[in-house]
Design a protein that fits this description.
242 residues, alpha/beta, Glycerol-3-phosphate (1)-acyltransferase, 7-stranded mixed β-sheet, Plipid/glycerol_acylTrfase, acyltransferase, transferase, transmembrane, transmembrane helix
Length: 242
Amino acid sequence: MQHFFKQIYTLWCAIVFIGLFLLLFPFFLIIILVPAWHKHCYYLNKFWASVALFLVGIKTEICGLENLNPRLQYVFCANHFSLLDIVSFGFAPHSVVYVGKSSLAKVPLFGFMFKKLHVTVNRKSLKGRYKSLQQALEKMGNERSLVMFPEGGIMSRNIPEMTRFKDGAFRAAITKQIPLVPVTLPDNWIILPDEKIPLISRKKMRMIYHQPISTEGLTMDDVPSLKEKVFKVIAKELKKYH
């Protein structure tokens, strides 16, 4: 019986998320047509995430926003165990550019919107990863922050333990000389597991923004130590919950 109710709840969640996106798509399209307006996708993302989670009864708890200056650019680095992680950054303090896997571009309508406003990456290609990083830096400009999942996708086979981080997020922060912000997402993989046919669980979605880590004066030689520092911050926080 519990399995049946989970199926019904999952269907309701899908209807809400897809329905809201279809309602918002014309507004995303208007923003796409004017590059100077791309930063305003923040308001649509926040509305989509807030209303959708409210309608499906998932409460949110966002911690650490007081650590951030909404006028500054950041590179947000988060653990990545669930597709819900992308939705979480609808609660970012300002407009962000996502770097997501190239398969997202194949999703009808959503893929078109994502590719125009954000960046897709072929993680199997070194050249593709480099090109995507350059595109992300360009789309950030001087106003938008960057969201990257430094594991390079949902890679862990032993959740909630993370896999080793890739360099992209740290190279981006050093190139722009802007702070890195570790972000812990402790519950998303329980709410929406990474399975072929996932069933959604109703649970509070928590998001923890940690203290920004300065990259001022750092060079690419500092990437390994920076990766280790961010990894330890997120791993320590995950252990508090699991």
